[in-house]
């Protein structure tokens, strides 16, 4: 089968598609669209930012999102629209955003500029994340010339532009919804459009690598130069992209992107919303999925510690049926998860926090924005009449898997909610974990930081200022 997408009103059809060929390489090497740059080839710098669009059935419009072309595999484009920086200039004329950036000195060496233009253009036309401040939208775009001052000024000068997608909606409707598959040499790929189709494919290909956003697997290819024989692209299965909210909690489909989950998570609890906002840069949140962040079992994945502390349950599915497990039981050991042959992660259920419970989630990283956790701590304390009657404490970056702190929880439960209890529980963390030393932090740093995050919970519960963001809000 072919991969079809729309670029500047033209339907592009690709045959004999290498399943791990990146959109960036295709644009630069096959299409001559060299405005899209390669800076890091790992989704970190934003120089390769492009916009992808698909029909949003809720309002019959095109929903655009900024993504990193360097870790988008070509089959993931099927049925979508694409905009590159070349798409913005018509008949040799710059659009208003480009003209403003050119005139106010936003571009210095110019290498990062196309990616920055695409991120800000997405904001101008109401793309995913457009409700965020410009600084948040640009967190995934690195300017090494430190030209952010004029860039931010341009963002405020040109913050809205018209985008006529009426014809594009009709064209995309003709392309979307079909299951696709392909073969390239000895390698093969599948792109099912229903969960039943996915379950059936896994029966015949249990060894296949499932890919949703490719924000992790993409690096296996671009940095690890890994060859993957069989891939299944699951990012366009509607059942896996569903969000269901109720008075009891939230069910999140495995293929829901973090950017799309942000508002829901914020309503569930502000701390979870803030964690999601700091989950990498916007381009990564526009691709990375909640299920993928869980399924790959990384010990430093941002979501799992929070989900564990909130008492979430994971539903996995196969052709034979479903089973539901506490999310902490899914993580068995480093690189080993409770996922049997033919199974896939289907959804995540998070119960709604009880009013009055003390919930605190903190992420520590070397860069505040767009960086991987060194330590991520999540705490959920049920307090009744001054006593802690229940405690769920989980950390990422402290062990081979995201893991609960059993000794710490034992100290907290049935104890008064006092600083003395918190101090004893903080000491217990030293028996719960034996972290590694790596480039993100030493073992001693991680242990001390984990204990301090528990102390931060106490101070936050007392109404004390515990972060620079709160100081900024007061100063503002």
Structure description:
The chain has 476 residues and is of the alpha+beta class. It has 3 domains: 35-70 and 86-167, [2Fe-2S]-binding domain (DNA polymerase, domain 1); 238-351, 2-Layer Sandwich (Uridine Diphospho-n-acetylenolpyruvylglucosamine Reductase, domain 3), CATH 3.30.465; 358-470, CO dehydrogenase flavoprotein, C-terminal domain (Enolase-like, domain 1, 2-Layer Sandwich). 33% of the residues lie in helices and 23% in strands. The protein is built from 18 helices and 21 strands. It has helices at residues 23-30, 96-103, 113-124, 134-137, 148-157, 166-175, 195-204, 217-222, 258-268, 270-277, 282-285, 290-295, 303-309, 327-330, 406-412, 419-432, 443-461, 468-475; strands at residues 3-7, 10-14, 49-56, 61-68, 80-83, 180-184, 187-191, 209-211, 230-233, 243-245, 249-253, 313-318, 321-326, 331-333, 336-337, 344-351, 358-364, 375-384, 387-396, 403-404, 415-416. Strands 2-1-5-3-4 form a 5-stranded mixed β-sheet. It has a 5-stranded antiparallel β-sheet with strand order 10-11-16-12-13. Helix 15 (406-412) packs antiparallel against helix 16 and helix 16 (419-432) packs antiparallel against helix 17. The protein starts with a strand and ends with a helix.
What is the averaged pLDDT score? 94
| Architecture (CATH level 2) name of the largest domain | Orthogonal Bundle
* Alpha-beta classification: alpha+beta
Largest sheet: 5 strands, mixed
User: Overall 3D geometry?
Assistant: globular
CATH topology of the largest domain: DNA polymerase, domain 1
CATH superfamily of the largest domain: [2Fe-2S]-binding domain
Radius of gyration: 23 Å
Residue fraction in strands: 15-25%
Number of domains: 3
Q: Counting H and I runs of at least 4 residues, what is the number of helices?
A: 18
Number of strands: 21
Rounded to the nearest angstrom, the distance between the terminal CA atoms is: 56 Å
């Amino acid at each position: 089968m072919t991969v079809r997408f729309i670029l500047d009103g033209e339907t592009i059809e690709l045959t004999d598609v290498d399943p791990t060929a990146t959109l960036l390489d295709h644009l630069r090497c096959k299409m001559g669209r060299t405005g899209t740059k390669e800076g890091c080839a790992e989704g970190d710098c934003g120089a390769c930012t492009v916009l992808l669009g698909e029909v949003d059935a809720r309002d019959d419009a095109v929903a655009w999102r900024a993504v990193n072309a360097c870790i988008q595999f070509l089959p993931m484009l099927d049925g979508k629209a694409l905009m590159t920086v070349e798409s913005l200039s018509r008949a040799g004329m710059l659009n208003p955003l480009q003209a403003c950036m050119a005139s106010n000195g936003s571009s210095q060496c110019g290498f990062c500029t196309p990616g920055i233009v695409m991120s800000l253009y997405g904001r101008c036309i109401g793309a995913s994340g457009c409700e965020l401040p410009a600084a948040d939208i640009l967190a995934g775009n690195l300017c090494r010339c430190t030209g952010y001052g004029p860039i931010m000024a341009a963002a405020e000068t040109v913050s809205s532009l018209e985008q006529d997608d009426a014809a594009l909606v009709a064209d995309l409707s003709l392309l979307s919804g079909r299951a696709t598959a392909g073969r390239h040499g000895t390698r093969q790929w599948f792109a099912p459009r229903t969960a039943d189709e996915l379950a059936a494919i896994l029966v015949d290909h249990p060894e296949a690598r499932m890919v949703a956003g490719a924000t992790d697997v993409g690096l296996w290819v671009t940095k690890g130069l890994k060859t993957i024989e069989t891939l299944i692209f699951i990012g366009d299965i509607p059942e896996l992209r569903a969000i269901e909210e109720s008075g009891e909690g939230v069910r999140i489909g495995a293929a829901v992107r973090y950017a799309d989950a942000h508002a829901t998570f914020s309503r569930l609890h502000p701390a979870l919303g803030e964690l999601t906002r700091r989950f990498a840069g916007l381009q990564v949140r526009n691709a990375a999925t909640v299920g993928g962040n869980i399924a790959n079992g990384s010990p430093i994945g941002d979501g799992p510690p929070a989900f564990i502390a909130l008492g979430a349950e994971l539903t996995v599915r196969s052709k034979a049926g479903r089973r539901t497990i506490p999310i902490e039981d899914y993580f068995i050991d480093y690189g080993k998860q409770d996922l049997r042959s033919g199974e896939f992660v289907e959804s995540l259920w998070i119960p709604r926090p009880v009013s009055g419970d003390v919930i605190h989630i903190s992420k520590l990283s070397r860069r505040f924005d767009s960086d991987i956790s060194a330590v991520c701590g999540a705490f959920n304390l049920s307090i009744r009449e001054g006593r802690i009657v229940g405690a769920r404490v989980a950390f990422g970056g402290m062990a081979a898997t995201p893991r609960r702190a059993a000794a710490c929880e034992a100290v907290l439960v049935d104890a008064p909610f006092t600083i003395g209890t918190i101090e004893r529980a903080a000491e217990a963390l030293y028996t719960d974990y034996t972290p590694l030393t790596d480039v993100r932090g030493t073992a001693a740093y991680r242990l001390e930081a984990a204990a301090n995050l528990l102390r931060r919970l106490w101070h936050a519960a007392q109404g004390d200022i515990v972060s620079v963001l709160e100081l900024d809000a007061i100063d503002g």
